[in-house]
């Protein structure tokens, strides 16, 4: 019997990263402050998890200015969307195997 845990994505095993991807997969883009509020985490915590997902090329970061204030927006990439789906499928397989 194959171990379904082998199909889990290490980058998505942390709950904050999974939450970030869950938000991004359902929106066209999300701003840093809004994401921080939705997830109820600190700037530093969000930034470190965003960096990890960015390294995997699961999301893109765009920086701009809105009324002279910096604005950072995140979007999920196709690679990220695919990885997220595979991770959810692996989680589902783990649950089914436990029944």
TrEMBL record:
Pfam families: HTH_34. Residues 16-95 form the Winged helix DNA-binding domain. GO terms for molecular function: DNA binding. SUPFAM superfamilies: Winged helix' DNA-binding domain. It comes from the Bacteria. Keywords: DNA-binding. The keyword DNA-binding applies. This is Winged helix DNA-binding domain-containing protein. It comes from Chryseolinea serpens.
């Amino acid at each position: 019997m194959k171990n379904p845990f082998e199909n889990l994505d290490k980058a998505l095993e942390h709950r904050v990263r999974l939450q970030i991807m869950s938000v991004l997969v359902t929106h066209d883009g999300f701003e840093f402050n809004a994401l921080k509020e939705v997830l109820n985490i600190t700037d530093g915590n969000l930034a470190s998890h965003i960096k990890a997902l960015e390294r995997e090329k699961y999301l893109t970061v765009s920086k701009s200015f809105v009324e002279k204030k910096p604005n950072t927006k995140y979007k999920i990439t196709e690679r990220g969307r695919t990885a997220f789906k595979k991770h959810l499928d692996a989680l589902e397989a783990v649950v089914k195997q436990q029944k």
